[in-house]
């Protein structure tokens, strides 16, 4: 009934409710990409052969997947607790369906968004309307359309079910201009990725068989075709398979080296620039792609915090808000249920800095001892739930001792 890994098809949104728009060219329709000016066909699948794209998508997917995702409940008084007794907690925290772990599910969905801008999962509900499982769908097989009469959204799966209402589809979107589908980042960056593919191909051809002949023999006079063929074959017979043999040329012959100097081509500089461009596209710090040219011991930690703040936090917000809207009923949301990623693991600094932050937090009443122990994955102890507060502080505007 559910196909996790179907490929092919096209992803197009139709805001008018009519027939979904058709892409120009079978390559675009089949793979969600197209031919770049460099001559390379760029699709989400071909882009993954560029190591900078592969690494960027994997970093984002694994970072999101490694964060614990829990269902919380805000009780009266503002206290937030884990809603472990709710079925949705186990669904997103442990296993969304019988075949996948929560890590597998989050990793796949984030990779879909990184490569195609959208991630889809069919929501399986029981007779009471409660969510029982989430089954991922291949983004290239899904078409989104909006009913022009009431604005409702429906999903069609190529080779599968059509007319699926939005309440039965978990649709995670990347950056979008219409609120209906996320933009495909690989399609938008087609020229950047195409240039990277072309650069890798040129480098491989240069190392392999060369993009030009390695050498030329200059002969006095104007030899005909047969003479040129004889000279070429003679060279092959003598030197083929033995690159270290000494070349012997006849009278009136001169050898010219035609091999291209990769330094003169600024090949490595071009490759570095493409890595930087791809890192910019995914908002990945260059040092996470093994580009340490401008990295120092003092700025890497700051860049890691920027990665959390400017790259992961927007993705986390998309996840949390879409899960709240698609999986929780209106009554559950009004009762205080909400999904929350735990980003504490990504914010952990070295032990000294971490414990200094804990001490400050406890001294001003932000943490109690057991909360700190929980963050360090240690068991609580009796009496550790007491909060402390400074004795030398008072409410703003309160009269001081000795004042009327």
TrEMBL record:
Top-level taxon in the UniProt lineage: Bacteria
Signal peptide: none
One Pfam family from the record: Phage_portal
Gene3D superfamilies tied to this protein: 1.20.1270.210, 3.30.1120.70, 3.40.140.120
InterPro entries noted in UniProt: Phage/GTA_portal, Portal_HK97
Name of the protein this chain belongs to: Phage portal protein
Organism lineage: Bacteria, Pseudomonadati, Pseudomonadota, Betaproteobacteria, Burkholderiales
